[in-house]
Amino acid sequence: MRSIDLSSLPEKAPEYDLRQLLEAGCHFGHHTKKWHPMMAEWIHMEKDQIHIFDLAKTAKQLQHAYNYAYMLASQGKSLVVVGTKKQAKDIVRAVATEAQMPYIASRWLGGTLTNWEQISKSIKNMMKIEKGLKDGDFNHLTKFERTQLEKQAARLARFFDGLRELKSTPDALFVIDPKKERITITEALANDVPVVALIDTNGDPREVSLPIPANDDAVGSIELIVKAVAEGYKAGKASKK
Question: What's the sign of the alpha-carbon dihedral 17, 70, 52, 43?
């Protein structure tokens, strides 16, 4: 996995209140039996057979992630948010849309990185059908044929709605739960694409470029961290204007 030179990042991130991280449930890891030993440096203690994250370290990593997102956006580069698990998908869709970030919240399709040309064609086809339906270009077709086109557009939108503004292969990914997004991580590793990840105690931090160690199941934890990284991206975009 490509490393990120933290020393090269701009110092733009705010200070994060550890009480806020605590209230969001960021500190709770998994059962001690399910941990990955490489996560040891991010763990503060064990309580009732549950690992507890060191929130000071979580806050520092979140600052790095904010600064990295800021840098990418300020350089006109893309950061695709990937979160398809039940607890994350609605948050990812809402936050990424508001921040004008590309996202995947339904399912990562194999080839999104390794076969971008085909993915790009599918996105263009989706947008072409949508425009044709809106402009009346298909009014000459039968009702059945138009219905089939509507179904095709909806099916494509399920997978590509969040990528419609993406013009090329993603410059970096922000993944919620790399253990869940196994295919995403595999493709990123194969294509040397940097990955920022919200990662729990059962994940392997060696597979990501910039780990944000925190609870990746609690809605509050996911929302806080996704919003923080998105804020960095928004600030970076604003700095270009």
Answer: negative
Whole-angstrom distance, CA of residue 29 vs CA of residue 210 = 18
Q: How confident is the model at residue 241 (pLDDT cuts 50, 70, 90)?
A: low
- Is the pTM for the entire model greater than 0.90? yes
Total domain count for the chain? Answer: 2
Measured distance CA(90)–CA(132) in Å, rounded: 28
d(CA 179, CA 203): 6
Distance in angstroms (rounded) separating the CA atoms of residues 39 and 213: 8
Helix axes 86-99, 219-239, angle to 10 degrees: 20
Which range of residues forms the domain containing residue 120?
116-162
**Mean pLDDT (the chain, rounded):** 94
Percent of all residues in the chain with a pLDDT value above 70, rounded to a whole number: 99
**222 within domain boundaries:** yes
